[in-house]
Every structure is written in C-alpha cells, then in structure tokens.
Amino acid sequence: MKWSLAALLFIFVAPAHADIIHKLSHSTQLTVDAAASVATRQGSTYSVSGSNIKVGTGNSDVFGGLTAGTAAAAPTMKAGTYMVNTAGQAFSFSENFNQGDAINAINSGSTVTSGVVPSLPAYGSVTTYSGGVAGNLAGSITSAAGGTVSLTSGGAGTTAIGQYTSELSVLQ
Q1: Higher pLDDT, 55 or 164
Q2: How buried is residue 158: exposed, middle or buried, by Cβ count under 10 Å (0-12/13-18/19+)?
Q3: 22 has pLDDT over 80
Q4: Are residues 46 and 23 in the same domain?
C-alpha cells in the first residue's frame, strides 16, 4: 500500500474549527421627571439670658416665653417683666424671639398641574422641583443598516437615551 504524502497530511492534520458569536442588543429609555416639593415648617423660638437680672417684683411679673398656639396659628411671644437685680452693678440682658410659620390646612400649599408646581407653600424652608412635560418625547431603534437610533426630545425635565450594540467574537 502506497500512501501519498498529501493523503498522510490529510489524515494527521486536525480540522480547523472556530466558534463565531454575534450578539445584537438595543435599548431605549425615556424618562419624565416628577414634580416634587419639600417644605419644612419653622417653629417659634424664644430665648432669654443675662446677668444681674431678675423677674420684676409685681404680682403679674413673669419670665417671657411662648403662647400655646392653636391648630392653625404658630405660638407667639409672651412678654416677660425684668429688672436689674442689684442697682448700680453691671448687667447684661438678651431676649430673642422668632415667629414660626402658620400651620396650613391639610392639602393646601403645593399643587401639581400637568407636571408643573404653580402654587408653593409659604413655609420657612421650601425646595421645589418642577416636573417634566413629555410633549413629543419618543424613541425607536431599528436593526436595518447597522442600527438606527431615533430619539425625539420632549419638554423640559425629560431624558431620552438610545443604544445599539453589535458584538462579534471569533473564538478558537
């Protein structure tokens, strides 16, 4: 039996093979921001300090303070009556009052209309975020011609993100 060199090489050479992986992915994300309002009501505060000071000597003389307030009104200041304790001596006196915010009725203050906040609460600290309006917001992706991303912007407060990915791997 005579074997030709070409036939021997064909028998002993391993066949070539490779795995080919092709992945296509696409995604579209459309976002419309929500309107929000964060309000913090400021409370009433009162403080008094001093040296060589005392409450007056009359029957109705009292330290200052805060009134109880009501369901709709913040506490107010109740004035005190003070006098120098030892006449002719040095003294210091400090009295501070901050009027707190009125108490709004439930469901009053912020309103949201079509993603916009046209009415704000009247509190000491308010942070408001205007919402987005979708308007013409749209997005599409086609696989023709290597992936075409088509995004249409919306109104203020909107985001459109499109992505098309093609991955080709040849593994040996």
Answers
A1: 55
A2: buried
A3: yes
A4: no
Interstrand relation of 111-113 and 116-119 (parallel, antiparallel or unpaired): antiparallel
Residue 152 clears pLDDT 70, i.e. is over it: yes
Q: How far apart are CA 159 and CA 32, in angstroms?
A: 7
Q: What is the DSSP letter of 57?
A: S
| Same structural domain, 72 and 102 | yes
Q: What is the pLDDT of residues 68-92, one digit of tens each?
A: 888 788 899 999 999 999 999 999 9
One-letter identity of residue 156: A
Domain of residue 65, residue span: 37-129
Residue 12 lies in a domain: no
Tally of domains within the chain = 2
Same domain flag for 51 and 108: yes
C-beta of residue 98 within 8 angstroms of C-beta of residue 36: no
**Is residue 117 domain-shared with residue 82, that is, in the same domain?**
yes
Using alpha carbons only, how large is the chain's radius of gyration in Å? 39
> Rounded to an integer, what distance in angstroms lies between the CA atom of residue 154 and that of residue 136?
5
**Residue 99 is encoded by which pair of tokens?**
């009027």
| Closest of 32, 36, 38 to residue 157, by C-alpha | 32
Non-local CB neighbours of 114 within 8 Å, separated by 6+ positions:
133
User: Are the C-beta atoms of 44 and 99 separated by less than 8 Å?
Assistant: yes
